Amino acid sequence: MPINYARRLTGRKRTANANRHLGFALAFVAGAINAGGFLAVQQYTSHMTGIVSSMADNLVLGVYDVVLSGAGGLLSFLAGAASSAVLVNYARRRRMHSEYALPLLTEASLLICFGVLGARLSDMRGLFVPVTVMLLCFIMGLQNAVITKLSHAEIRTTHLTGIVTDIGIELGKLFYRNAAGPPSHLRVMANRDRLRVLTLLVVFFFAGGVLGAVGFKYVGYVSTVPLALVLLGLAMVPAADDLTTLARRWGRAARQSRKGG
Predict the structure, then answer these.
(1) What predicted TM-score, i.e. pTM, was given to this entire model?
(2) Mean pLDDT of successive 10-residue segments in the chain (261 residues)?
(3) How far is CA 259 from the centre of its chain?
(4) ∠248-254-260 over CA atoms, to 5°?
(5) What is the pLDDT of residue 154?
(6) What pLDDT does residue 128 have?
(7) What is the pLDDT of residue 146?
(8) Which of 46, 136, 162, 256 is a good FRET partner for 172, with 20 to 30 A between their CA atoms?
(9) Are 201 and 157 in contact (CB under 8 A)?
(10) Residue-level pLDDT at 46
(11) Quick one: CA dihedral 204, 231, 133, 162, positive or negative?
């Protein structure tokens, strides 16, 4: 992957085009994790709507173990999103190049753990739920929060409800027939560029889902390792820039110390 491209995608300085390209990549990763994870843990872990609805249903039905399991997944997703915010704000205060890369590096590391240790983790129980479920929910919360922060909530990658709703709105505008002669500011016009971006997010999520399902079916947990390597490739360049900056500061401090001595 070209270094400058990776730097633009996950570096501190943002552009709308970089946000979109990163969004496509993360939508693909989220689709793969969500679909492959379902085969692994029999539960979708990227969207909380279904989990909360399931908790409500099973609370009424008296199936309290499912309610507690949902609570474990929900709290894990919440913890992932909070952790992402902490990492981004920590790096931002210190003007680090890896402001948005740190959560992605964390996600990649956790995906490697899932790929290598997933079979063992599935037998361990954490907060009312297997550790694998907690880990995947945490990862999805982490990812959704970082793309939300860097795009100012314009792009989401771990669930499609809002995206599909926005596609419907833009299609409604596209097919709306304006009456002849109204002022230009009253004309209903679709944002074709936004419609294209939203559609591509769905396409990448679906493509990732197909690949994730195939990978887990034929390879198993280790199929998440290539996804982790993709994230590492995206996030390592800003992290390396920070290490270079830190090394230069240490070098200057050492030279000044020698001169002072």
Answers:
(1) 0.88
(2) 82 90 94 87 82 93 90 93 95 91 94 84 71 89 92 87 93 86 74 94 95 91 91 90 84 72 56
(3) 48
(4) 135
(5) 87
(6) 67
(7) 93
(8) 46
(9) yes
(10) 82
(11) negative
Could you tell me which of 124, 144, 143 has the C-alpha nearest to residue 133?
124
| Residue 100 pLDDT | 92
pLDDT of 251 reads 76
Contact residues for 234 (Cβ-Cβ < 8 A; gap 6+) = 1, 6, 9, 10, 22, 25, 101, 104
pLDDT score recorded for residue 69: 87
Using an 8 Å Cβ cutoff, are 223 and 216 in contact? yes
Q: Where are the alpha helices (DSSP H) in the chain?
A: 3-10, 16-41, 48-61, 64-93, 101-121, 131-150, 161-174, 192-218, 225-260
Report yes or no: 46 and 140 within 8 Å, Cβ to Cβ. yes
Please name the amino acid found at residue 68. L
* Amino acid identity at 109: S
- What 3-state DSSP class applies to 138? helix
Residue 64 in contact with residue 58, Cβ under 8 Å? Answer: yes
User: In whole angstroms, what is the distance from residue 103 CA to residue 251 CA?
Assistant: 28
Can you give the pLDDT at residue 261?
56
- What is the maximal distance between C-alpha atoms in the chain? 82
The answer to whether residues 190 and 151 touch, using CB atoms and an 8 Å cutoff, is no
In the numeric block, the tokens 């790929």 are attached to 115
Q: Which residues pair with 125 in a beta bridge?
A: 130
φ, ψ (nearest 5 deg) of residue 62: 80, 15
Structure tokens at 244: 């270079």
Three-state DSSP class for 42? coil
DSSP 8-state secondary structure symbol assigned to residue 196: H
